[in-house]
User: Fold this.
Amino acid sequence: MTDTATTTLSSKGQVVIPEEIRVRLGLKAGAQFVVVGDRDVVIFKVLEPPALAEFATLTARARRAARQAGRKRADVAKAVKKVRRGA
Assistant:
Protein backbone atom coordinates (compact mmCIF):
# COMPACT_ATOMS: atom_id res chain seq x y z
CA MET A 1 0.00 0.00 0.00
CA THR A 2 1.34 3.42 -0.92
CA ASP A 3 0.59 6.46 1.20
CA THR A 4 0.86 9.93 -0.25
CA ALA A 5 1.19 13.20 1.61
CA THR A 6 2.61 16.64 1.07
CA THR A 7 5.46 18.26 2.92
CA THR A 8 7.57 21.40 2.62
CA LEU A 9 11.30 21.95 2.26
CA SER A 10 12.59 24.22 5.03
CA SER A 11 15.10 27.05 4.57
CA LYS A 12 17.70 24.66 6.04
CA GLY A 13 16.94 22.00 3.41
CA GLN A 14 15.02 19.78 5.82
CA VAL A 15 11.97 17.75 4.87
CA VAL A 16 9.48 16.32 7.38
CA ILE A 17 8.31 12.80 6.62
CA PRO A 18 4.63 12.73 7.62
CA GLU A 19 3.84 10.82 10.83
CA GLU A 20 1.59 8.20 9.22
CA ILE A 21 4.40 7.22 6.84
CA ARG A 22 7.04 7.20 9.62
CA VAL A 23 4.82 4.95 11.74
CA ARG A 24 3.99 2.55 8.89
CA LEU A 25 7.66 2.22 7.94
CA GLY A 26 8.88 2.09 11.54
CA LEU A 27 11.20 5.08 11.05
CA LYS A 28 12.84 6.45 14.18
CA ALA A 29 14.98 9.54 14.82
CA GLY A 30 18.45 8.98 13.40
CA ALA A 31 17.28 6.78 10.50
CA GLN A 32 19.60 7.16 7.53
CA PHE A 33 18.68 7.33 3.86
CA VAL A 34 20.23 7.28 0.43
CA VAL A 35 18.77 10.20 -1.52
CA VAL A 36 18.51 10.05 -5.30
CA GLY A 37 17.39 13.02 -7.39
CA ASP A 38 16.55 12.97 -11.08
CA ARG A 39 14.81 15.91 -12.74
CA ASP A 40 11.69 16.50 -10.62
CA VAL A 41 11.84 13.20 -8.68
CA VAL A 42 13.48 12.72 -5.27
CA ILE A 43 13.65 9.22 -3.78
CA PHE A 44 14.57 8.43 -0.17
CA LYS A 45 15.70 4.83 0.43
CA VAL A 46 16.09 3.72 4.04
CA LEU A 47 19.56 2.38 4.86
CA GLU A 48 19.54 -0.61 7.15
CA PRO A 49 22.67 -2.21 8.58
CA PRO A 50 23.22 -5.76 7.38
CA ALA A 51 22.31 -8.60 9.68
CA LEU A 52 25.29 -10.04 11.53
CA ALA A 53 24.91 -13.34 9.63
CA GLU A 54 25.01 -11.44 6.33
CA PHE A 55 28.13 -9.55 7.44
CA ALA A 56 29.84 -12.83 8.35
CA THR A 57 29.05 -14.21 4.88
CA LEU A 58 30.48 -11.11 3.19
CA THR A 59 33.62 -11.26 5.35
CA ALA A 60 34.15 -14.93 4.49
CA ARG A 61 33.80 -14.19 0.76
CA ALA A 62 36.29 -11.31 1.01
CA ARG A 63 38.80 -13.49 2.86
CA ARG A 64 38.46 -16.27 0.26
CA ALA A 65 39.01 -13.78 -2.56
CA ALA A 66 42.08 -12.35 -0.80
CA ARG A 67 43.57 -15.82 -0.32
CA GLN A 68 42.94 -16.67 -4.00
CA ALA A 69 44.69 -13.41 -4.96
CA GLY A 70 47.65 -14.36 -2.77
CA ARG A 71 47.13 -11.54 -0.26
CA LYS A 72 48.26 -11.82 3.35
CA ARG A 73 47.38 -9.90 6.52
CA ALA A 74 50.73 -8.14 6.30
CA ASP A 75 49.72 -6.81 2.86
CA VAL A 76 46.64 -5.18 4.38
CA ALA A 77 48.61 -3.61 7.22
CA LYS A 78 51.18 -2.30 4.72
CA ALA A 79 48.47 -0.80 2.50
CA VAL A 80 46.77 0.92 5.46
CA LYS A 81 50.08 2.35 6.62
CA LYS A 82 50.81 3.65 3.11
CA VAL A 83 47.43 5.36 2.82
CA ARG A 84 47.74 6.93 6.28
CA ARG A 85 51.12 8.36 5.30
CA GLY A 86 49.54 9.84 2.18
CA ALA A 87 52.07 8.09 -0.03
Observations:
- The first strand starts at residue 32 and ends at 38.
- The beta strands are 32-38, 41-47.
